[in-house]
Automatic annotation (TrEMBL):
Protein's UniProt name: Sulfotransferase
Source superkingdom: Bacteria
Chain coiled-coil ranges: none
Pfam entry (one): Sulfotransfer_3
Lineage, highest ranks first: Bacteria, Bacillati, Actinomycetota, Actinomycetes, Kitasatosporales
Length: 380
């Protein structure tokens, strides 16, 4: 248990006035941290600082839009969202798409503070250094992470970082043991949090304006969007989607392994069967909904289904298919960028990842039964 109720620290935060609806998420999340997360004593303060940082970014976003009305009018074009369960190849796809001259996959250092990225270029050097230090600290606390999910300050990263600032994101139940928060989150509408996601994205993309005022098409990637597709599509009705698919047994076991590693950065107490049950339930529970109504959830938006096995077997050909879907040229420069990334970031370049269903108390046959309709619908 923490020594103090962390939510009390943030009562009266100006962010609550500037960003209505955030206070409940902060209250639920920090109360769960206090009662359930089992953080190491030395990690309480850094986690609370991250809460404060998220509130500050939202407050800064609101202030920036007040003083720069053009931010709200920035045309994002037809954004591309990479969706699908965790561990389906989305990091690879996101990195490769970021090499296309007409696209931009936001980098980790940009996502770390979209306001400084977008409108304070004089802060870019300091922000890059801060993000490099953040990654180094994370790897020191979770040394197995690079072999499971490689992050780099200067590579594309997941836009859950924008949603987490609203305290409405599944990444928080991935990072910390907060079951009461997770129960609450999955019963919420994320329409308003996604509006703040969009506002932060517009601010970030302001840094990438061309001479004619346009910006490259943003490519966003976060597996957690897959649980809230209807809300996402409502806020981004012009978006296009690439939906990745992989064998659910591998997905559940690999996700559980990632969760163990990430939570281990802040807590020394891990219940592996509890982790396995959490992600088995989350993934199998959603699989039937996707099989029955994925297209309806997306409001009929354009979507390309891409199997994991096709992506990893021939990434270059997969990128050719993606470019066709997005109506983009498969240029020589893009192909060269794809091949360069593949040479420098091979699957095992940063370490191996070993995991198995049994260590998390998972029953392979039960997962296959629970995901039968999903596997039939999407051919996995």
């Amino acid at each position: 248990m923490m020594a103090v109720q962390p939510y009390d620290v943030y009562l009266g935060s100006p962010a609550f006035d500037l960003v209505p609806g955030v206070e409940e998420g902060v209250r639920r999340f920090t109360a769960a941290l206090d009662a359930e997360a089992r953080l190491r004593p030395g990690d309480v303060e850094p986690v609370l600082r991250s809460v404060e940082r998220g509130l500050q970014i939202l407050s800064d976003t609101a202030q920036a839009r007040r003083h720069r009305p053009k931010l709200a009018r920035l045309d994002l074009g037809r954004p591309v969202f990479v969706i699908g369960f965790l561990r389906t190849g989305s990091t690879l796809l996101h990195n490769l798409l970021g090499r296309h001259e007409e696209l931009h996959s936001p980098l980790l250092w940009e996502l770390a503070n979209p306001v400084d990225t977008g409108i304070h270029p004089q802060e870019h050097r300091a922000l890059r250094r801060w993000t490099e230090d953040y990654v180094a600290d994370y790897y020191a606390k979770a040394p197995a992470l690079p072999g499971i999910h490689y992050i780099d300050a200067h590579l594309p990263d997941e836009c859950h970082r924008l949603l987490a600032n609203t305290f409405h994101s599944m990444v928080l139940e991935m990072r910390y043991r907060v079951p009461s928060y997770g129960y609450w989150l999955h019963r919420q509408s994320l329409v308003e949090p996604y509006r703040w996601h969009r506002r932060q994205l517009q601010t970030l993309m302001w840094a990438h304006r061309r001479a004619d005022g346009s910006v490259p098409t943003p490519v966003l990637k976060c597996p957690f969007h897959t649980w809230f597709l209807r809300d996402l599509a409502q806020v981004y009705p012009e978006a296009r989607f690439i939906h990745l698919h992989r064998d659910p047994v591998q997905v559940v076991a690999s996700t559980a392994s990632l969760c163990r590693t990430v939570r281990g950065a802040r807590s020394g107490e891990q219940d592996l069967k509890e982790i396995g049950a959490l992600w088995s339930g989350r993934i199998t529970g959603l699989s039937g909904e996707l099989a029955e109504g994925r297209d309806d959830l997306l409001g009929g938006a354009p979507v390309l289904d891409l199997p994991y096995r096709k992506l990893v077997a021939d990434p270059v050909e997969a990128m050719r298919e993606v470019c066709s879907f997005l109506e983009l040229p498969f240029s020589d420069s893009f192909r060269a960028g794809v091949e360069d990334h593949l040479r420098n970031h091979s699957q095992r370049a940063h370490g191996g990842h070993r995991y198995g269903p049994a260590e998390f108390g998972l029953d392979e046959a039960a997962i296959l039964r629970a995901t039968a309709s999903y596997r039939a619908r999407f051919g996995v």
